[in-house]
Amino acid sequence: MIPLPFATGLTLGPFALLVLALPVLLLGEAAIRRLPRLARWNIPAPILSGLVVAVALLACAEWLPGRITLQGSTADAVWLWSILPQWDLAAPKPTDVERPLLILFFTCIGLNASWAVARQGGRTLLVYLALAASVAALQLASGAATALALGQSPLLGLMAGCVSLMGGFGTAAGFAPEFEKAGLPGAAAIGIAAAAFGVIAGGLIAGPIAGRLVRTKLGLGATAPAASAEPEAPAPAHGFIAELQDLARNPGSVLLHLAALFVCMKLGAFVSVQLQQAGITFPVYMGSMLVAAGLRNLHDAAGGTWLRSDRTDGVASVALMWLLTVVMIDLQLHQLAHAAWPMLVILAVQVALIAAIAYWIVFRVMGRNYEAATMSAGLIGFGLGATVNAVATMRELARRFGPAPRAFLIVTVVGAFLIDFVNAVLITTALNLCR
């Protein structure tokens, strides 16, 4: 008899998980390129391919128990050193192997948090930020209230609401350990599933709602007002390999940005410790994000020109795609069973809430014009999980009705980094209240 492969069991260590994530990610991108229907649903490649592998691992656990197991933590101080609050290489406590990718992503957000860029939006940007912050607060309140009405922990409402929707995949992954400590089992799986739902829902409703505003409220047909006739920038490179190729074209500048990010991550590790010792629950990335934001604004105040947002965006994109694939592969899907139906109800409430706010409030507050309709679509896009979703929807609107340059500036600045700072404070406050 030929022995079955892995008959004695196969354990994938933390670094094997990191390496496995790369071909899984590339296969997901290939599938989306070959199947247009998947592309139209705006499902991110890491979510698609990672979920397939997670389901396969769940099936193996059911049918071949003990044959394949994942070891998703590591005590390797070399890999983790940049995010540890220590200068030596002493072995740290077990830590998720993807933690450096998570903190790198949010450090990139901090390094792009330029006040000089933000103030170009003027008063309109501040009003839009206030609207986005109000939506985040409503998501927290409605999520917790809906969970309580369903007999569930309010923590489920927070995680399936603002954390995963306004926050997106990165925030869900960042806050998951704190939610699990607070008493929500399977917080990472819940967060990633809710964020994936949000991305799909946002891609489906943002464009139709904005299109209805343009046609019924403004009476526009195929083109937008001539005042918005400024040309749009070309679409950025898309996909893991495309991002790496784009970064490789400017190796010196990219290495300089990576060095700056590394320094911010290391110093931020000590800042995070101080924040935790203050008795307030903050996500692990907060210290690094604050240090990076401080560096960026000192750079701008001094008249520096070497920090470029496009370089940081490229690094952030690579880190996020790799991070999400690792997180998806390592999902413990069986932990979702207890929260599946309550989570869907909470998510349905959240989608209806943000659609109503965008249609009835954001459009009116932002000026009742074409730019306002475009900003309404943008709020739905990043309010349900991803700024890239918002930008993709706005580009489609620009293609059909004409450019909206002010909307692109304001939505990108608010959705890409300003709301992340506000959201982190709101979530932290809610989490401490619900403990």
3D structure, described in words:
The chain has about 425 residues and is an all-alpha fold. It has a domain at about 100-230 and about 325-435. It has 18 helices and four strands. The chain has helices at about 15-35, 35-40, 45-65, 75-80, 100-110, 115-120, 120-150, 155-165, 170-180, 185-215, 240-250, 250-275, 285-300, 310-330, 340-365, 370-385, 385-400, 405-435, and strands at about 10, 70, 75, 95. A two-stranded parallel sheet has the order 1-2. It has a two-stranded antiparallel sheet with strand order 3-4. It is globular, with a radius of gyration of 22 Å. The N and C termini lie far apart (about 55 Å). About 50% of the residues are buried.
Brief rundown of the structure:
Helix content is 71%, strand content 2%. By secondary structure, it is mostly helical.
